Each structure stands twice: as C-alpha cells, then as structure tokens.
Amino acid sequence: MEHRKVKYGRTWWKRQRKKNQTPSRPKSCDNDQDMIVLRQWMHKDGYTGCSLKPAVFPDTGRGLMTTRNISPGNILISIPEALLITTDTVLDSDLGQMIANSKMKLKPIQVLVLFLVVERYKGSASQWQHYVDVLPKEYTTPLYFNHDEINSLNDPIKHQATELIDNVAELFKSTQYSIKHLDYKIGTVSLDDILTYDIFKWAWCAVNTRSVYIDHINSDWLDTTTEKNHFALAPYLDLINHTNSAKVEAGFNFENRCYDIKTLDTYKKYDQVFICYNQHSNVKLFLEYGFILPDNDCSIVSVTPSDIYTICKKLSHLGNIKEKLKFLNQKELLVNLEVSLNGASWNLKTCVLILSANTEKNEYSFMKCVYDSSDSCYTTCKMLMKTLLENKIESAGNHDSCRKGFESSEAPLPYKAVIIDTLNGERERILRSNIKMLLTNKEYFLRD
Ligand SMILES: C[S@@+](CC[C@H](N)C(=O)[O-])C[C@H]1O[C@@H](n2cnc3c(N)ncnc32)[C@H](O)[C@@H]1O
User: Fold this and answer.
1) By its UniProt entry, which PROSITE patterns does this protein fall under (predicted)?
2) Whether this model's pTM surpasses 0.85
C-alpha cells in the first residue's frame, strides 16, 4: 500500500494562512456599523460595556480582543439577564405563549430555533434585530457540507457527521409537523410558510454553536425528557472563541442578575481572549461547532485490546505473554488505551511495560511493573510500542487528501477543505508524532 507523507504541521498551516491572505495581524471590526448599533442597543438594556472589542484574527476568524491588560480574576464580560435569549424569553413572546397554550411540548432547542426564525423574519420589526444582524450567515458544521464533502471524510467521522445531519433533518420534520397545528402568523404570513430546512438549520447552528449553559428550573411547558433546558444566547459574549487551555469561571450571577465570565488567565492589551467550550477532540469540535484546532491535544487515537493481541502474536519472543494478558485483563488495564499529541495514556504505557518486562511468571512481578518501571527493558518497550503504532498506521490505509489539486495552486484552500484534510489526516499525524516522541524522548514511558 502506498503511503503519502502527511505534511500538515505548523509550516503547512502557516503556508495556508499566507495563501488565504488573511492578515497576519488581527483586523478590528469594532467600528463596523452593525457592531456599533449592537452595543448601543445593548446599553439601553443595562449592558455597561467591557474591555473587549471585536476583531478578525488570522487563525480563528472573528473573536474578541482586549483593549487593556487583563489579570486573572478580572471579569471579561457581563451580560444582563434582559439581553439573554432563553426559553423564558420565548415564553414571554407571543410565539412562546402560543406554544405553551397549545400544550404540544417542544424541545428547548426547537423553541429557541423557532424564536430565531421568527425574529429573523421580522427584520427591523424585531426587538432582537441588532443581535440577529451580527450572527454568521452560514456555518461550517456538517450541516453545511454537501454530499461530496461529507463523502470525502473518513469513517468513523463520516458516519458521525451523517448521523448528525439525519438527526437535525428529523428534528426539522417534527418541528414542521408541530407548527402546522400552531397556526402562528407574523402579520399575514404563517410560520409554516417561512420555516424551510435552510432557515431551520441556520437557526439550529446558531443555537448549538453559540449558546452558553444556564440552569432553568421552570420548564413545565417544554419536553425535557431527552435534553435539558440549558441554552442561553448571550449577545456580544458569544463572539468569544475557544481554546483548550482557557481557564474561566462562568455562569449566571444571581446577585447582579448577569451572565458573567471571569478569566483566570493573563492577557496583554490587543490579545484575543478565549473561553473553553469543553475539552473536545477535533471530531467533536467539528460536529458541534464547525471548526478544528491545528494541534488539538484532546484528539486521541484509541488502541483496542485486539491491537494488543495482534502485536503479541507478531512479537512471539516476548515472555509469558498468556499470563501477562490474563493479568492485564483481570486488573482492567485493557481499557482507556489511547495516544494523543501528548503521548500514550497511563494504561497503555502500563500495558506495554508489563508485556515487555523480563519478569517471573507471577502476579507479584507483574504488579511490581505497574508501580515501578525500573525493571522494564526500555528497548523492548520501545520496539513493542513502535510496532503497535506502525501497525495502526498501516491498518488505517492511505487517506485521500482533498488538498489534491490544490497543492500547486495559489488559490486559498477553503476552510471546509482544511477541516476535511485535518480530520482525515489527524489519526496518522498523532500516531507518527508518538513514534517520533518514542524515538527521541527517553521519558516517553514515564507515568505520573
Ligand atoms: C461562540 S461562536 C464564537 C464567535 C464566532 N467566531 C463569530 O464570529 O461569531 C463559536 C464559533 O466560533 C468559531 N470558533 C470558535 N473558536 C474557534 C477557534 N479556535 N478556531 C476557529 N474557529 C473558532 C466556530 O465557528 C464556532 O462555531
């Protein structure tokens, strides 16, 4: 099988950035008319401002930039309750009242999606117009991928993306069915007439990619059997992008009745501020939010017990294999076996250490390896781990790069293609980076 060398390290990303001709420095959009109007409107509802302004950043797109140095413990942003869109906001509207009176019990996300659809349709007649105006017009979640783009994803990502698309299509159908009975009109136009799949998916992505988490107590009128009522859209605050490393304390503050975000990080003036949506792998970030991180240390490659058995068969000279495997199984060490850009998991390292150890054929000796790796033969460990990683690369085969045809071109690689390429190549990149670490870092098998 032919192997193409995977080349999307930092240099590739830098080259892409250059090709895409995004400025290497952030470009402020603080003075864009829609942002000015948004803030003016928010001030009327009690928003007191913050030391953050919108800008377009080379790596992450639109986000928020500091206008001064920020220290750990500082409040980044505070959004008054009146400016949050929650299911309570919907219940206060004529749409919400009709839904509640109909006793049809929609899911929280359906209710919020319908609210956004209605407010967008109302245009300048909507109280929320200035917020709706700054929402992205489209997204890069799987819902915005066409058939060919979905097909160019490797499994199991393709399968997960297809499942998501099917679920949202299903939710659309059931929402469409429900609102037929509602007979809700905006002026003379019925909601049924404006609710197309395109507008539904736009609103669904807005709620799913931008909501913060709030606990609601009263939700008798909603169907919360499969999904909690926790969504809240928070204007301006929802311009903050994600990193895995951001540390914040965030939540609804019952004293000032605002949704507050306090950072625990340090920022210099003009830095981009971040929050952490959660410790997500790139697959999860793509499915939920439509983006990926170039070096995501939350992405993992799983190693199965069957991968371990295959290696043991291949390396038949390893001693006492049957007993060692039995021991690993009994001690439940053949679970959570994985590698990431940070190296191998504790269980995987322990398995490799035990399988490589030149020990007596008894539980005590195996147990000793779990806590003390000094007796293990480093060369055997290295060889076993390298074979395991190489086997996984081989078994996955070659991935078709969607960069084909773009490589020599000066045209920028569209972000969707970057997503496909990164996701398809990530598994191999993680495995190869582990081989490199293994060969160059003597401490690869150290366990905390
Ligand atoms: C809460 S919004 C953040 C603001 C958003 N960038 C905007 O322009 O409105 C979440 C979306 O921002 C984008 N995003 C967040 N963090 C990102 C990152 N680290 N890199 C690239 N895009 C990111 C994704 O499109 C995601 O769905």
Assistant:
1) SET (PS50280)
2) yes
